[in-house]
Specification:
The chain is mainly α. Strand 6 (346-347) and strand 7 form a beta hairpin. The termini are far apart.
Length: 859
């Protein structure tokens, strides 16, 4: 075995990319197939090279058919050939015009005023004979043939599928695809024009050719199905390039490679990549001796070499920097750019079989973030298109421009590189979700569909936040981004408004309506009592005095009348009443006792007066409470509207924030944690902080009660009202009512704490770390009565309970926690707590002093 110096060696294996025409000397194993292809092309002038992905279609055309034509292997034609090879890409007619306008293809040294590419594209779009007319316009020398090679012809079918899905831009693209196919069919069918057409296409797209009229017939006549390599041909495809490269390969490795390839032609591109990596590994170890099995095993063999190599390229995106945080941030940025690029270059969303999607560099920059990212995008592409990798086309050292079309070198990278496969599946899922969103948006705008609601809406919003789609990205899948985004925002706003309205109504109905009702009821009672004392009672006393005077004046006259006359009057009245009630009782009227009859008549009059007074009381009650009731509805309506204007935007923001996926996951994590302190990453409030909060709230309550009661006590009119009314003393309970409403509203608010708790850095929540409702805060407030009834023992329970819970905490199922952002208690709060303690102990000390003084006095 010979030893070859590394300087004299050149890696003879291209890797994933196809062989180029200038690499014919490295192309082995397909020599016998070229003659059949040339004969088929000569007879039909249309050759469809069909095979599975990785079977070597492009390499067979580049290193087999084209060199054979230049050597004059086609007897019917001369050896002068002009070759226009291209890929349909995003604009098939534009791609064909671009390659025809290239220097030396049809025209040389063009010096016209208009761009040649625009002229050719105009000719191609005018009629189906545009290609024929363009070749004739070139006025090529006699005997010159034109070979048009449409590589990766399956790219054309993606646009047809987009048209079937009804996307806006797809219809135009579909018409362009039909026009492009007609150009090729008309060109090869014209015997007067020496145009030969060759297409390369994956065999799994053969059925899609029926979408174009005339294409299946042309393919049936000129189809060449790439056959499998025999075992000897596979050996030649490995050993031949090694010998050309000036090295040797061990028989064991050669047999292993042939066996690993097997009969699957899809493995040929992976084999070329594995050989490229094995050669590089052999060079790195000194290039001594033959290529051996150990070199092949080191690169991961055919099963893992490509995935490992691609991961190494991805890891090479790491950026070195003095600051580790800056380095990590910039590295993540480049890796994200890499992910965006490869997602754009692979397409599983349009076709589940997976096809490449050539994309201009300018479009990739727009997808990443704008043309300002050109240098970053180029830096990422350079890593993947190094000669040792060649994962990205065009290969180095061809310079990259904004107009350059970027593509992955082979579909096998989509299937073998695990990271790219996951990216492609994620992109396909995003594409499906976007298409459904765009279609629904168009239907909703036409009045044929409604807005989205959960769960579809929330899934779409989560997808929008995670993927951050842009108009440029949406154009890859049919466009319509503005309509889809407006529809999604409209659906979100409708859902959030509906939910915010429910939350607002719930918050308004319980505390605010109750407060209005209590205040109005108290006001109505106070007004009614004030009216009774100041108006009704004086009038009643005046009427009583007047009645007494009238009774005194008529007494003397009544005494002068005879008793017989009185008796006759009473009996006549009884006769009248009894006759009306029962005629049978009218006969024995003379036998009735006048005194008994008078008593019965008096009772009847009293019943009538009592009924009149009851009706009057009901009427007066309605008169007093009707304005209050009407005022309640007025205040309820007006207050609700005013409060809605103030707090509804904030509630809407809270609803939108709570719908975020991150917030939802945090809530689920909190619910999964049993301890609220662990869920909120804080600790239970200490005993002294809770005591300080009690003292501050007690001081606030006492100050508020003093402010409210002092004016009442010092006002003679109000004092007299309280002393002479049955329920006027209820005004003194107003501070307790206000205290309940204050504490319930504060604990159920976003603060989750009273002012005293806020100062001491603690807050109240339930045992699942969820904010208390108004009802829960009310239950906690009144549960404190139990702690008071136990003479303070209920408060002291927090010193030995696990979560520092008092008796009312256990009853209401709440916990008091420390605020993570407030570690220390303000100094002024400590001084204020000490002052309140001093005021509380002062009466006790004073009473003790009095008792002590009395004892000394007795002694």
């Amino acid at each position: 075995m010979s030893t070859v110096t590394a300087a004299a060696l050149q890696n003879p294996f291209p890797g994933l990319r196809p062989f180029r025409e200038d690499e014919e000397h490295l192309f082995f194993g397909r020599e016998s197939k070229v003659d059949v292809m040339v004969d088929k092309l000569a007879s039909t002038r249309f050759l469809a090279v069909v095979g599975t992905s990785g079977s070597g279609k492009s390499s067979l055309v580049n290193c087999g058919l084209r060199p054979a034509l230049h050597r004059g292997l086609m007897a019917r034609a001369r050896a002068s050939w002009r070759v226009a090879q291209f890929r349909p890409g995003l604009n098939p007619i534009g791609s064909l015009a671009g390659v025809l306008a290239a220097e030396g293809v049809l025209f040389s040294h063009y010096a016209g005023g208009l761009p040649l590419e625009e002229i050719i594209e105009t000719l191609l779009t005018q009629s189906t004979k545009g290609l024929v007319e363009t070749v004739r316009m070139a006025n090529l020398p006699e005997g010159t043939n034109v070979l048009v090679v449409a590589d990766q012809f399956e790219e054309l079918f993606r646009f047809r599928k987009m048209a079937a899905e009804g996307s806006g831009d797809a219809s135009g693209t579909s018409e362009a695809a039909i026009a492009f196919v007609n150009l090729l069919l008309e060109a090869h069918a014209d015997p007067a024009c020496p145009i030969y057409v060759v297409i390369t296409m994956r065999s799994d797209f053969l059925g899609d050719c029926s979408q174009f009229d005339g294409l299946p017939e042309a393919i049936n006549q000129g189809q060449y199905l790439v056959p499998r390599l025999t075992r000897e041909e596979r050996r030649a495809s490995v050993a031949g390039p090694v010998a050309v490269g000036g090295a040797e390969i061990s028989p064991v490795l050669l047999t292993r490679l042939v066996n690993d390839v097997g009969d699957n032609p899809d493995q040929l591109s992976i084999l070329q990549h594995a050989l490229n990596r094995t050669w590089t590994c052999w060079e790195d170890q000194g290039a001594e001796g033959p290529l051996e099995l150990k070199h092949y095993d080191l690169i991961g063999s055919m099963g893992h070499a490509l995935n490992k190599h691609a991961d190494e390229a991805f890891a090479a995106l790491k950026i070195e920097h003095a600051d580790p945080d800056v380095a990590a941030q910039r590295t993540r940025r480049r890796q994200k750019i890499c992910e965006t690029i490869f997602k754009a270059l692979t397409d599983l969303g349009t076709d589940p079989r997976g096809i490449r999607r050539p994309t201009k560099l300018s479009t990739l920059c727009e997808l990443v973030g704008g043309l300002g990212e050109e240098e970053e995008v180029k830096a990422v592409l350079e890593v993947f298109r190094e000669p040792s990798r060649s994962f990205i086309m065009p290969p180095a050292p061809e310079p990259l421009k904004l107009t350059s079309v970027i593509d992955i070198s082979h579909e096998s990278l989509m299937r073998v590189w695990e990271r790219l496969r996951l990216w492609a599946e994620d992109e396909a899922q995003s594409a499906r979700r976007y298409r459904r969103l765009a279609e629904t948006a168009v239907l909703e705008a036409a009045g044929k569909a409604g807005l989205w609601y959960d769960p579809d809406l929330q899934l779409a919003l989560d997808w929008q936040k995670e993927q951050s789609p842009t108009p440029t990205w949406a154009d890859l899948y049919g466009g319509g981004y503005k309509v889809a985004d407006a529809f999604l925002e409209k659906s979100r706003l409708a859902r959030d408004t509906k939910l915010a309205t429910v939350i607002f109504n719930r918050r308004w109905n319980m505390p605010w309506r109750l407060a209005i009702a209590v205040l109005l009821a108290g006001g109505a009672l106070w007004v009614s009592e004030l009216y009774r004392e100041s108006v009704a009672e004086p009038i009643k006393r005046v009427l009583q005095i007047k009645k007494q005077n009238q009774t005194g004046e008529s007494k003397d006259t009544a005494d002068e009348k005879k008793p017989a006359a009185n008796e006759r009057k009473v009996l006549a009245a009884a006769q009248k009443v009894l006759t009306a009630d029962n005629k049978l009782l009218a006969a024995p009227i003379a036998k009735l006792d006048p005194a008994a009859v008078a008593a019965e008549l008096q009772k009847g009059e009293e019943r009538k007066d009592r009924a009149k007074r009851t009706a009057l009381d009901v009427f007066l009650l309605l008169c007093f409470f009707a304005p209050a009731l009407g005022l309640f509805f007025v205040l309820d309506y007006a207050g609700k509207r005013i409060l809605r204007r103030i707090v509804f935007p904030k509630i809407l923001e809270e609803v939108a924030a709570s719908a975020d996926k991150t917030v939802r996951e945090e809530k689920l994590a909190k619910l999964a944690v049993v301890d609220a302190a662990d869920a909120l990453r804080t600790t239970n409030a200490s005993f002294w902080r809770r005591v300080g909060a009690y003292l501050l709230d007690l001081g606030l309550f006492a100050a508020t009660a003093g402010i409210m009661i002092t004016p009442i006590v010092n006002t003679p009119f109000l004092t007299d009202f309280i002393d002479h009314t049955s329920y006027g003393v209820s005004i003194l309970y107003t501070p307790f009512l206000v205290g309940w409403l204050y504490e319930a509203l504060m604990l159920s608010s976003a603060r989750q704490a009273t002012l005293g708790m806020k100062v001491m850095g603690i807050f109240v929540t339930d045992q699942q770390s969820v904010r208390l409702s108004f009802g829960g805060a009310t239950a906690w407030h009144f549960a404190k009565l139990l702690s008071y009834l136990t003479l303070g023992i209920g408060f002291l329970m927090q010193t030995w309970t696990k979560r520092h819970q008092t008796l009312h905490d256990l009853v209401a199922k709440t916990v008091v926690l420390s605020r993570p952002d407030q570690k220390k208690v303000p100094w002024w709060a400590r001084i204020l707590c000490g002052f309140i303690v001093f005021l509380l102990t002062l009466p006790v000390v004073f009473v003790a002093y009095i008792i002590y003084s009395l004892r000394n006095f007795r002694m």
